[in-house]
Amino acid sequence: MTDDRYHPPEIEKKWQARWDADALYRTPDDDPRPKWYALTMYPYTSGDLHVGHWYAIAPSDVQARYKRMRGYNVLFPMGFDSFGLPAENAAIKLQIHPYEWTARNIENMRRQLRSMGAIFDWEREVVTSDPEYYKWTQWWFLQFYKNGLAYRSLAPANWCPSCQTVLANEQVLPDGTCERCHTAVTRRNLSQWFFRITRYADDLLDFSDVEWPERIVTMQRNWIGRSEGTMIAFGLESPEVDDNQIRVFTTRPDTIYGVTFMVIAPEHPLVPHITTLEHRAEVNEYIERSRRATEIERLSTEREKTGVFTGAHCTNLLNGEKVPILIADYVLPTYGTGIVMGVPAHDQRDFDFARKYGIPIRVVIAPPDWDGQPLTEAYVEPGVMVNSDRFNGMSNEEGKAAVTKYLEERGWGGPTVNYRIRDWLLSRQRYWGAPIPIVYCDRDGEVPVPESDLPVLLPPDAEFKPTGEPPLARHQGFVNVACPVCGRPARRETDTMDTFVCSSWYMYRYVDPHNPEQPMSHQLARKWLPVDQYTGGAEHAVMHLLYSRFFARAARDLGLVEFREPFTRLYNQGTIIAGKAKMSKSRGNVVAPDEYVSKQGTDAVRIYLMFIGPWDQGGEWDDSGLAGVSRWLNRVWNLVLTPAETTTQAPADQVRELRRMTHKTIRRVTRDVERFRFNTMVAALMEYTNYLTRLKESGPVDADCWQEATTSLMLLLAPSAPHLAEELWERTGNAYSIHNQRWPEWDAELAAEEQITLVVQVNGKVRDRILVPADVSEERAKEVALSSEKVRPYVEGKETLRVVYVPGRLVNIVAK
RNA sequence: GCCGAAGUGGCGGAAUAGGUAGACGCGACAGUCUCAAAAACUGUUGGGGGGCAACCCUCGUGCCGGUUCGAUCCCGGCCUUCGGCACCA
């Protein structure tokens, strides 16, 4: 035994200081090696990193380190997402300024991140609430503004009464509650800033430049919700309405002759104008009722459909029929035109609605053996068109095109593509965010702040307690400004930007973090971007990840970058849970890594997190398994540092076996780390350690092969246990640093098995296992199998019908 | 309701172009060391049955069927869990 035991905290401190002093992990821009940009989602500055953060970050570091050893110039940066509501809320509660709260948190989180021993180049750190950063967030806004990608509009917005701000559609959960605080969201009409993400709806549906999980791609496709259909005009005669038509979007123009009513969303602006006097009271009451209903109730598909008649009618231009217009809250004001045609025979919702209100149900697509009897439910399958005038007899699929063409020829409509996605609402009525760089002047209107005046600084002395009014609006020194055009007194925009704006471009800033002239230079963008491997949680599927794709497309069209996808590869790790719930501060179930790190060491914590299970599946934090990893690292320590008894006359087959194990392990570890299979990577290293330990204790070993084995073990361990590997490397007399060594290569010949276990089955049941040469012939294998003593009792007295042979695997004797 | 992923020992999990189920680790039990305990190390550890014994038999990958010489893996039908979507006209 060595007199020195493995003391993780000591060696970890020692090497972190040394690496820091030597700038070992600085990422040079001028390096001829091929680049690899690995990125893990930066944390929000909540104050402490819990093991959930480590679970996401540490394995990403392992893979980045591996790439580094494979000869890449690796960029693996870290920063902080530091604007946002929690900072403000915490600051209010603790009576300190968000700036100070954030600064303290960053300091603590930076310390924790350093203790992880990752290869972050801290010279490239990015902090989104830093004026040096948000200056460029504002700059992006101005570029978008100048190119028609940012605009202001009065619209009903999602309002969170608890957060006291509006939210983007993406930040409202499916149950109609706020993504952050789970309060029921209400609607408010406000003048708000939007990014025109819908301009890129089709481009965003193209995922051909990307290697992403199918799940995320599907989620984005669904969110964008492209739907091809037909816009159809209906005649409207209403004294109060100028337009004599109303339009609906439908995917079923083939059912146009089945329209027996129209439904309009209660909040549609047309409603007050078309409603007749005698129905006004009833309509207003309904509108009031649906406004009071929460989003949750309204979204429930279980709920019975309700509606009321407006007194108005419109005309189906194809057959001249007048049909009643009703309002009903199952029609969404934000999708299509907010008006739908009711075809009860061929849409279940319309069917239920028509039944309830006694509206006629007219079949226009005949089911296969339809006898003309009334339907008991809507018929939505294909069929032949009936009751449809000139289109009778056509299949409904042909009918879709034919009706659309007919409408188009008469100027009554035509093919239309409709999207579910809406423009990105980025205004927030809160303090802790990047101010929107716009000035309002009575004479010049909406004026962008000149780029030379950026950043528009957040005034540190603002009263930021929420009142529903933007905090900046009450800061006279901030609001009052000279108009950039005419110099007269004007007012600043007082809303701040959604933090997702900050995170839509942070991966660009890392490549040129201190550039005072531009967000990043063209040259460095070309060198590093796009990100080769992005890792993070799947919860950002339709927020951060979609917004970032939009930013990249806009940046490409602005000539800033030459790609459209910011993240070439994406991998989502799972979630670490504690007590059946996701770890979060608000749930109070966070587990801090710090104590484990200071006792068992960061290397053990890193490896244990990988060992829990497949990375993409997450898992329960249970520290009892950590001890097993600690014990293993101790065994590695002893194995490498206690000299083995060596010889030059080890038996040949033992030498071959040792080399085979070494090369097999290199192959397994390499493949596993490439495919994010960290749990089996660790298992492979443990098995290898167990094997080497047994071999060493069994007697003298071949000196050269033993050397190769322990060297390989150290190298394979270096990305996962960087401190332990470095210490062992030094103690075994190698030159600093192990992290600058090349990853070992395996030799397929050496890794190949010489013997295989031939499984012998009788009727599918294993009866014997026989060692045979790996290159055994079929004849020989069958011969060996059939002559097995253990097999005999099962085939004796039976007829052998067949002998199945699987090369290198088994022989199955089928006997009866 | 729809779409997707998953269901394997006491526990986390291995193994799928269909071919030795349970690697690796935790826990448990037994032992070594110790005055004792902890730590460390060694051995055993899916259920049932048999043998003095190296071992042998049998059942077993959520449930019920199917395809196949052979199914944790493929197909059909259920059950459960977890994600996502949910009146999108």
Describe this structure in words.
- The structure is a single chain.
- This protein has 816 residues and is of the alpha/beta class.
- The model has no long low-confidence stretch (mean pLDDT 92).
- It is 36% helix and 20% strand.
- The radius of gyration is 34 Å and the shape is flat.
- It contains 27 helices and 34 strands.
- The strands form ten sheets. Strands 8, 9, 10, 11, 12, 13 and 16 form a seven-stranded mixed beta sheet that branches. A four-stranded parallel beta sheet has the order 2-1-24-25, covered by helices on one side.
- A hairpin with a 2-residue loop joins strand 31 and strand 32.
- Among the domains are: 160 residues, Rossmann fold, CATH 3.40.50; 192 residues, Valyl/Leucyl/Isoleucyl-tRNA synthetase, editing domain (Isoleucyl-tRNA Synthetase, domain 2); 129 residues, Isoleucyl-tRNA Synthetase, Domain 1 (Orthogonal Bundle); 61 residues, Ubiquitin-like (UB roll) (Roll), CATH 3.10.20.590.
- The protein binds one RNA strand of 89 nucleotides through helix 7, strand 9, strand 13, helix 11 and strand 28.
Topology:
Layout: H1 8-21, E1 35-40, H2 51-69, E2 73-75, E3 79-80, H3 85-94, H4 98-115, E4 126-127, H5 131-146, E5 150-160, E6 165-167, E7 186-195, H6 201-204, H7 214-224, E8 227-236, E9 245-250, E10 261-264, H8 271-274, H9 280-292, H10 295-299, E11 308-316, E12 321-327, E13 339-342, H11 348-357, E14 365-366, E15 384-385, H12 396-409, E16 413-418, E17 424-425, E18 427-428, E19 438-441, E20 445-448, H13 476-479, E21 480-482, E22 489-492, E23 496-497, H14 499-503, H15 506-509, H16 522-528, E24 531-536, H17 544-557, E25 567-572, E26 576-578, E27 581-582, H18 594-599, H19 602-611, E28 619-620, H20 626-641, E29 646-647, H21 652-674, H22 678-698, E30 701-702, H23 703-717, H24 722-731, H25 748-751, E31 755-762, E32 765-773, H26 778-786, H27 792-795, E33 800-806, E34 810-815
Parallel strand pairs: 1-2, 1-24, 3-4, 10-12, 24-25, 26-28, 29-30, 31-34
Antiparallel strand pairs: 5-6, 5-7, 7-17, 8-9, 8-11, 8-16, 10-13, 11-12, 14-15, 18-23, 19-20, 19-22, 21-22, 26-27, 31-32, 33-34
The protein binds one RNA strand of 89 nucleotides through helix 7, strand 9, strand 13, helix 11 and strand 28.
